[in-house]
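Progress report, Aim 2. The chain analyzed during this reporting quarter is listed below.
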Amino acid sequence: MISRREFLQASVAASALYGISGFGNWSRLAAQQALTQDDLLRFDTFGNVSLIHVTDIHAHMKPIWFREPEFNYGVGDVRGLPPHVVGRDFIEMFNLTPGSPEAYALTYEDFVALGRTYGKMGGMDRVATVVKAIRADRPDAILLDGGDTWHGSMNSYLTNGQDVVNIMNALGVEAMTSHWEWTFGTDRVLEIVSQLPFPFLGQNIFDAEWDEPAEDFPSYTYFDRGGVKVAVIGQAFPYTPIANPRWMFPEFSFGIRDERMQEMVNEVRADGADVVVVLSHNGFDVDRKMASRVQGIDVILTGHTHDALPEPVLVGNTLLIASGSHGKFVTRLDLDVRDGRMMGFRHKLIPIFSDVIEPDPEMSALIEAERAPNKDALEEVIGHTDSLLYRRGNFAGTWDDLICDAVMTERDCEIAMSPGVRWGASLMPGDAITREDIHSVTTMTYGQVYRTEMTGELIHTILEDVADNLFNTDPYYQQGGDMVRLGGLGYTIDISKPIGERISGLTVLRTGEPLDPARSYTVGGWASVNEGTEGPMIWDVVESYIRKQERIDLQPNTSITVTGI
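Predicted structure tokens for the chain:
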């Protein structure tokens, strides 16, 4: 980890690399709780190349509440390392001021109280203001999008992603990579990509039949900026056909493909690249391992796991940059590149406080125009919540508890399963719940709610498999999101154990009885990767439930015990 209390000094070739994070500049201002737009955008321009990074926006175009995780456990060699640090430990590790805007933006501590003070975050019109300000200072700054961009809202679902595509084009993105984009299906992805004014990168996207790089998606692209040849190599989410339905894009395979990444780095270096940037959707721990195995990468702009870190992490001579999700942050990274080597850097994670940053009027108008055809449906109030609704975290979240309650009630099930996806905005106690809010945590192109029978043994096996996707000590075997959410069932998990030994104490909450391996239980769930899944769409199920309840009041979920941490 790079300390912001002193300059980093590390050997790079025969020279020294000097870098600093600019986060501390607004950290000190945050302690005074008197932020202004000028404070947030202030940056000591450095070097000759500027990168702007956004990722995991998940189609959230408007300002939102978004609570950072309360649980983010690391295992093996990354235990206790960023990003596997939360709350008060995060505040102490990065020397933040408790109760400050930065503590609110980056942790879950006192989220409701601090949210009332500092307001919502994000909004692509505010992001546009930040991007324009950076480009006014450094006109040739390169704007890169880490993927999970087109998917995640009601309006994106209704427009097949077109609303987000139009907005990101207007923002001036110059290259992107991908993950959830693929759930619109091959035909739609190819249709959009053919119209993009920038490359849709993926060195690991292969033609599944011929096992060779897919022609429609370049592995890398070049930018000549500040007298420097910048190579940007794309890395799409490697487990897309596992985490999402393979039948939606059967023509393509993905994978990590370290050997080919090394070939691409060598190729661009041989072609005169002065600096090599990987635009990745691997997830932070996968990128950390890749950086240790592939030589010659200067910067990895990481995504997928939604981590927001105020400082870069250094692996060998490679900088890992994590820019959060849902439009909460924009990263600016300035590089000093001379004689074909990166000699230094300056970094700033810019928080998008929507009450502080003025919306760009052109982008605001575009966002409203894209929403206009569906505005009434988006903003219809379905109910209200008296509880904080959030999702982010390794285990239970209140939004997921609500979804599971809805599935069990509306589909008459003993047990409910909800996928451990990370996307979706929060709601504050007292907020209205709109139809758009429900879609924020449920929208996808395969959202049918199934109802089936499973034995207790099968349920146990599923939980063990999902747990291994999350807690395998080798990050290359971590193939999914967070832990599957459960309704009607409690358990204990020892994250330090191997697969098959992590889950114990499975208990049916309604009766207090142990889950019977031999008995068959009625289970409802959604987001099945199996083609032909039948059932109502999850957002309709949740909407029906909320309408009947009128007000949502959830008690803390105490049905999961975590050990081995």
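The two ends are 21 Å apart (CA to CA). The longest helix spans residues 456-471. These observations will guide the mutagenesis work planned for the next reporting period.
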